[in-house]
From TrEMBL:
The keyword Oxidoreductase applies. Residues 202-445 form the Glutamate/phenylalanine/leucine/valine/L-tryptophan dehydrogenase C-terminal domain. Homohexamer. The gene is gdhA. Belongs to the Glu/Leu/Phe/Val dehydrogenases family. One of its GO terms (molecular function) is glutamate dehydrogenase (NADP+) activity. The lineage of its organism: Bacteria, Pseudomonadati, Bacteroidota, Cytophagia, Cytophagales. Pfam families: ELFV_dehydrog, ELFV_dehydrog_N. NCBIfam families: PRK09414.1 (NF006929). Keywords: NAD, Oxidoreductase. CDD domains: NAD_bind_2_Glu_DH. This is Glutamate dehydrogenase. SMART domains: ELFV_dehydrog.
Length: 447
């Protein structure tokens, strides 16, 4: 069996040389799906997994724009349309200097499984650009977004592909892109999600990924005879997902003690409370400053430059920044310090080796494709509200989000329960996500 998994991953690696993140994401899935296919020959015979590793389409384009000094600038942009078996392509746009084809293919691949888990009808895609919004003026970001959308508009649509935000793409960028799409098409359409509330956005979409992570963690803890109240938590990142993970942890009586950005992390032994969280939101969403400023204002906190937040003694860990930010040595430290659960808010934040150690030690662990699915699920709810032209209340959307996270949990448990005391969510999430897409692909013939 191991040989077969290796041979499969090698064949994908040979076709996608140098795409380390994409191959990492494929390997995680292959380790679960290849043994599963052995007992489900209809998927094996139709080469479903191999087909799923090949994007239906990739669009690569240049984005020319002019900065505030009048200099002509060029960035590279992509949209990976991975799989549309169960619905239009759906997935975020990332603006970050590290963006390349490998990263977007891994994200699009993960998105296919995640969107399938949401119970809604959405295929998987992802896009973005190596543009760095950091240090750019609003006018520069607007000009970039308008130029980016001028090309992207040719490839998307409410029934074709519906992008949203991701790292470096929040409400501001979505607004500029939506405005440009509307000008180009003369059409007010739900072609992007994460829109502002004044022009078709959904209540709770901003909060949804972080809230969903904590709803999911709560279900996992319950399934293992535990609760979230009183737990000390390490959270990484300080962007959208980190902020609303912290907010929901506070609602449920947990104590978050860390946040981070690419320069280092804050450890606050007194805990990050509502007031401190409001400071982080203003710092990151409005002033766009560095997280080190937190320790200048709150003297009880320490800023640890260049160090990951996984050194603190915590009960639970929530990696919410970026891929491969939680390596095996940090997982070892977390476990040695008594951590009992790792819940991914980011996409693929835990390295392969680290996941193997976590599963071997039977620490609770949930892959992002399950635990961070609340964001895209609420995007799906935004699409529904746009279609019926009726906005739902905050309570309605929040209760649907909660229901979806509970049903994702049930589905993961169905395929991932190992024994009375342990659920393997990596196995559960991958099989549950796969089966729906695989059945749709089989039904649709050679697509
Ligand atoms: N926004 C959403 O709805 C969803 C986001 N995600 C994932 O969650 C993660 C975070 O995304 P957002 O919060 O939306 O982005 P964001 O742009 O709001 O925040 C990203 C955060 O990560 C930090 N970061 C980036 N690179 C880092 C590095 N090398 N080391 C340490 N920190 C770093 C940034 O400083 C920032 O605090 C990403 O993996 C994204 O793909 C997953 C599901 C949905
Ligand atoms: O809301 C969406 O469409 C996309 C969210 C996303 O990019 C993700 O789940 O990683």
């Amino acid at each position: 069996m191991t040989q077969t998994i290796e041979a499969f991953v090698e064949s994908i690696a040979a076709k996608n040389s140098g795409e380390s993140e994409f191959i990492q994401a494929v390997r995680e899935v292959a380790e679960v799906i290849i043994p599963f296919n052995e007992n489900h020959p209809k998927y094996k015979e139709a080469n479903i997994l191999e087909r799923m590793c090949e994007p239906e389409r990739v669009v690569i384009f240049r984005v020319p724009w002019v900065d505030d000094k009048g200099t002509f600038r060029i960035n590279r942009a992509f949209r990976v349309q991975m799989n549309s078996a169960i619905g239009p392509y759906k997935g975020g746009l990332r603006f970050h200097p590290t963006v390349n084809l490998s990263i977007l293919k891994f994200l699009a691949f993960e998105q296919v499984f995640k969107n399938s888990l949401t119970t809604l009808s959405m295929g998987g895609g992802k896009g973005g650009s190596d543009f760095d919004p950091k240090g750019k003026s609003d006018a520069e970001v607007m000009r970039f977004c308008q130029s980016f959308m001028t090309e992207l508009a040719k490839h998307i649509g409410g029934f074709t592909d519906v992008p949203a935000g991701d790292i470096g793409v929040g409400g501001r960028e979505i607004g500029y892109m939506f405005g440009q799409y509307k000008r180009l098409r003369n059409e007010f359409a739900g072609v992007l999600t994460g829109k502002g509330l004044a022009y078709g956005g959904s209540l709770i979409r901003t909060e949804a990924t972080g809230y969903g992570v904590v709803y999911f963690a709560n279900e996992v803890l319950k399934a293992h005879g535990q609760g979230i109240t009183g737990k000390i938590c390490a959270v990484s990142g300080s962007g959208n997902v980190a902020q609303y993970t912290i907010e929901k942890l506070l609602h449920l009586g947990a104590k978050p003690v860390t946040v981070s950005d690419s320069e280092g992390h804050i450890y606050d032994p007194d805990g990050i409370d509502e007031e401190k969280l409001a400071f982080i939101k203003a710092l990151k969403n409005e002033r766009r400053g560095r997280i080190s400023e937190y320790a200048e204002v709150y003297k009880e906190a320490i800023f640890n430059k260049g160090i990951t937040p996984w050194h603190a003694k915590v009960d639970l860990a929530f990696p919410c920044a970026t891929q491969n930010e939680l390596p095996v040595e940090d997982v070892r430290m977390l476990i040695d310090n008594g951590c009992i659960g790792v819940f991914e808010g980011a996409n693929m934040p835990t390295t392969e080796e680290a996941i193997h150690l976590i599963r071997e030690k039977r620490v609770m662990f949930t892959p992002g494709k399950a635990s961070n699915a609340g964001g895209v699920a609420t995007s799906g709810l935004e699409m529904t509200q746009n279609s019926i032209r009726i906005p739902w209340t905050r309570e309605e959307v929040d209760s649907k989000l909660k229901e979806i996270m509970i049903s994702i949990h049930e589905n993961c448990e169905k395929y991932g329960r190992v024994d009375d005391t342990y659920v393997d969510y990596v196995k559960g999430a991958n099989i549950a996500g796969y089966v729906k897409v695989a059945d749709a692909m089989l039904a649709q013939g050679h697509v």
